[in-house]
Amino acid sequence: MAAKTTCPVTRTQFTEKAEPLKVVINGQELLAEVKEFSTGSFGWYLNGKILVPIDGKNVSVQVGMNLTVVGSKEAAKGDGGGGGGDKAGE
Description:
single chain, 90 residues, mainly beta, 4-stranded antiparallel sheet, 1 helix, 4 strands, elongated, disordered C terminus
């Protein structure tokens, strides 16, 4: 079984320092916004529309995209690096 990936940033670091990401689809730019998902993971979210030419006609295409930081669901909430709580002596 493959080793589980650990997120290298805390939840606080992500929410304070992450910036929107530019996503280009078929030459059209969209902006993915920083988001904390209801699942507890975090990353970026994009929802928009682009035009895609088919046989000389533009077709409107709905784009929905989640970019999830691997291991973010288990990421620590504080500013320390990595996971784990701080319940000393328990």
